[in-house]
Design a protein that fits this description.
Order of helices and strands: HEEEEEHHEEEEHEEEEEEEEEEE
Shape: elongated
Helix content: 25-40%
Number of helices: 4
Strand content: 35-45%
Number of domains: 4
Distance between the termini: 82 Å
Largest sheet: 6 strands, mixed
């Protein structure tokens, strides 16, 4: 009896289990389910949000950071040692080319010039005496030679006259060399005297002042620095990936924190011909005009370089791009002629310039709005309904 009850219960359980399996199998074939061979979005209408394709100019821009540097900067330093007796400029003062900035105590150097002038006079006097003696010996030699030709003078007298002539000729050459030496010494003394007056070699502003009057300076000790800021240079680094895209002459824009609303324009002036081996970056210099002199050396700079610019291209939001079956593309909403509704068609695309929020569609030509929300639920040919109006930039 118990055995029959167990068999009956087992049969009932098997029947129930079979019914559940059939129910599950039947429910999996509903038109809205994914099912075998059916992807998400097929067999049902998906609500999506779209954006129109816009035709507009685009720029490809790279942003870098760097520091504002003067177009030139040089240090004024004395070439001789001495005590500073006068400095005419302080930081921020403007100096013209050739304008005197400082003077050193020149008493010692003036004395050296006087001494060199006196030595030159002595050498010139010695030269005059040597020239006179040489002329006398030359005349004596000519007289002795004339007498010997007549048979009046002896050979020994001629030898003596020739020896005296050679000796005084050497003395004359020595005197001339001494005069040249003294002239060179006088010139050097005057140059050292001129070194006690320090002037600007190029116009600019006094950037730093290192000493005051009364300081004793050695040769080549810095006195002041002069900077030229009618133009400025921002030096930045570019990675290897961008190296081929940066060209001399490309336009650039600069912003600094001191003037956040002002955009300064310039161009790429120089690019390093080598990359640093350790970091794989290269230095680039971007030059900006600074006629109003608002940009100051040392400011933190944000530079935007325009790599390329196009007049009229197809532009869509970057969120519209999706990968489908390994291909990058977009879903375009089109009218379904059979149902009168809308369907989404997938188009593989080639992209171009990107600004981070928008991207250029280089090909193909897109006709119709693109899906920017809900495209992950779609497959090619899926039925869609538009969720509100399409988006346009600037709204």
């Amino acid at each position: 009896m118990k055995k029959k009850i167990l068999i009956t219960v087992g049969i009932i359980f098997l029947i129930f289990l079979g019914w559940r399996i059939v129910s599950l199998f039947t429910s999996s074939k509903e038109p809205w389910g994914p099912g075998p061979g059916r992807g998400p979005g097929q067999g049902r209408t998906v609500a999506v949000e779209v954006s129109d394709v816009r035709i507009k100019p685009m720029k490809e821009i790279r942003e870098f950071t760097g520091t504002v540097n003067p177009i030139y900067r040089y240090i004024i330093a004395p070439k001789v040692s001495g005590r500073v007796v006068e400095i005419t400029k302080r930081i921020g003062d403007w100096v013209n080319k050739g304008e005197i900035i400082a003077r050193l105590d020149d008493a010692e150097y003036q004395q050296a010039v006087l001494e060199a002038e006196a030595n030159l006079k002595i050498s010139k006097a010695s030269l005059n005496e040597a020239e006179s003696q040489f002329e006398l010996t030359r005349q004596e030699l000519e007289r002795v030679r004339s007498l010997q030709e007549k048979g009046i003078s002896s050979s020994s007298e001629l030898d003596t006259a020739e020896t005296e002539y050679s000796s005084h000729q050497s003395r004359l050459e020595l005197a001339r060399a001494q005069v040249e030496q003294r002239e060179a010494a006088l010139k050097s003394a005057k140059i050292r005297l001129e070194y006690t007056v320090l002037a600007a070699t190029e116009p600019g502003f006094i950037g730093e002042r290192y000493v005051d009057e009364g300081n004793l300076l050695s040769a080549n000790s810095p006195l002041v620095s002069v900077v030229g800021i009618d133009s400025v240079i921002v030096q930045a680094t570019i990675i290897e990936k961008d190296y081929a895209s940066i060209k001399v002459g490309q336009s650039a824009e600069l912003q600094v924190d001191a003037f956040p609303e002002t955009i300064f324009t310039g161009k790429v002036a120089r690019i390093a011909p080598v990359l640093e081996e350790a970091s794989r970056v290269a230095k680039v210099e971007v030059e900006f005009e600074n006629k109003e002199r608002l940009l100051k050396p040392g400011m933190f700079a944000r530079v935007s370089v325009v790599l390329q610019e196009k007049e009229a291209v197809q532009v869509i939001p970057v969120e519209a791009i999706i990968k489908n079956n390994g291909k990058e593309g977009v879903f375009v909403v089109e009218e379904d002629a059979l149902s009168g509704g809308n369907i989404a068609r997938f188009y593989p695309i080639e992209t171009g310039i990107s600004t981070g929020t928008e991207i250029e569609i280089a090909s193909p030509e897109i006709k119709g709005p693109v899906v920017i929300l809900g495209q992950h639920l779609l497959q090619d040919g899926a039925s869609v309904t538009l969720n509100g109006t399409s988006k346009e930039e600037g709204r």
